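Researcher: Structure for this, please.
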Amino acid sequence: MSNREQFLLDRKLGIGGSDIAAIMNLSPYSTPLDVYRDKMNPEVIYEEETEDLKRGKRVERYILQEYCEVNDCKLEVNLPTVIHPEYPFMRSNIDAKVVGQNVIVEAKSTKCPIAKWEEGIPEYYRTQVAYYAMLSKADRVDVPVLFSNWQYACFTYWRDYEYEARIKKAVIDFWNNHILTGIPPEPSNPAELQAVYPKIEDTKTIKANNEIREKVSLWQEVSIKRKELEKQEEKLKIEIQRFMGDAGILDSGFCKVALKERTASRLDINSLKATMPEIYREYSNDNTYRILQIIGG
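Model: Predicted structure, token format:
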């Protein structure tokens, strides 16, 4: 078994750092249901190392080397998996540990602007490093980051025990309520909802409870406000463009507004269907999607 296959197998034995944000519904990339499906699939799916993965490993080595040079220290790498003594499904694979210090290092590379990180470690990464700090009982986690244009900066996660307690509870609840029971989490997006409920019974009606009734009412209010704001936005844009005339840029003092032309080519579906029905049928694909709409009182 290759190192990567072993890594994929180990990943299914418990909850790792990259799973935390998804479990807590804080991940832009995956959902609790994604994590559940990954853990409940007993097979090791061999993922061939792509160029992006290989490049990521090389960049990680560079970031750790830069960290060593900036901080005049040495790092331990290729560390064994850290496993919680009481909850063995809580596991972490950390990048490195500073020799002679109780400090772990987690290297990151991102296209996100550095200004976002200067506001604080993004939640997606903060959950991960907090989890590592908790399992490793580290004093802190240093997060050296390589941004676009080879801009390097380092950020620190200092122990937040209340935050870590919330993470620990979320992991234990997820493992006990979903992995051990085999009950999947609730769907988190339209695609998951459609997969869980593949067929709609058009004539079936259910009564809303108080909680859902309040949400429907709030949705109505938000929908009305959105439409009003869209109308207001369109009116303002017309007034601004009228003032600009043929100018391409407006300097408002606190920002600049640009007026640009765009050309979009669109296929005339109706004409194609009428004049070349065989070609239309050959290249047509049915795309089924769902729309939730308010249809009356």
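Researcher: Any notable elements?
Model: The chain has eleven helices and ten strands. The domain at 3-179 is CATH 3.90.320.10 (Lambda Exonuclease; Chain A).
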